[in-house]
Design a protein that fits this description.
The chain is an alpha+beta fold. Helices cover 15% and strands 31% of the residues. It is built from 7 helices and 17 strands. The chain has helices spanning 19-26, 46-50, 75-83, 136-139, 142-151, 203-206, 234-237, and strands spanning 13-17, 36-40, 70-71, 89-92, 107-111, 119-128, 163-164, 170-174, 177-189, 191-195, 219-224, 241-244, 250-254, 258-263, 268-273, 277-280, 287-290. Strands 12-11-10-5-14-15 form a 6-stranded antiparallel sheet, with no helix packed on it. Helix 1 (19-26) links the parallel strand 1 (13-17) and strand 2 (36-40).
Amino acid sequence: ELDRQHLADVDLVIAVGGDGTVLSACHFLDHGTIPLLGVNSDPISLEDTMSNSIKKKSDERRSHGALCMATSHNMHEVIPEVLYGGAKVSSRTRIQFGNKLVPALNDILICNPSPAAVSRFRMGWLQPVDDPQNRMQDSFSERDYNYFQSSFNENSLSPQKHTTNEHYGTVTRFGGLPFDIARSLNVWSSGLWVCTSTGSSAAMHAAGGMDMDGDTSDLQYLIREHMIEARAGKEVSDMNNKLIHEGEQVHIRWNSQKGRIFIDGSHLVHNLDLGDEILINNKAPPIQIFTKAD
């Protein structure tokens, strides 16, 4: 099996398979210094798409190959272009959500291990406490601020780790520095999708997410099947699907007994326990990947 020690002194990684194989290969390239070439080993052919015997123009048994620059049909032409500098390499943003976890190129799904169970978590934007422009009242009305503080008190963090005061939301510490969790919202839902622009056309698109420019470094999140009380206000429903811009960090506090983070699909999983905290941003080293010409 492939291990990071096998990549010492390697100048190029070639992933032969489909998009899933490319995503798996990315997880070994967490430093982003080695370029990656994807080769679609079983693409649907032009003859298949033109055949009258096929009702659908795509075959779900085969890979779409969105992350593959080459196919088994043209790799003999593409690989020399890559080796001799005639191919296009793109820098793609990845999701960072833990110092010990590999970054995600497409998306992550944070949810309860059971699809029938509620995923409970609190989310908010991490901001320095000494910045007066980053107070919760700037983003939420006084009514909603008081509503969240009173309605979800039973899910607040332990006082040994977090404190509150009249100016800020919930204060936490990362790396020994205090941060304000602004626009704090407790969520009951089916989970949380987070994607890059690369992954915005995959599961996020199917879930109703926004289209994204392929060159943007922004991330996007979408709360799945968000259970919202009628008195919560429009500000809460408007938070269902938003972009996480450059420099922003989203803080998640997991409030269910068990949870999981699915990283770029179902094969790579990280388990969560009650009280675990996740910090989501785009600070992971981008992946260098060869892409098809526009």
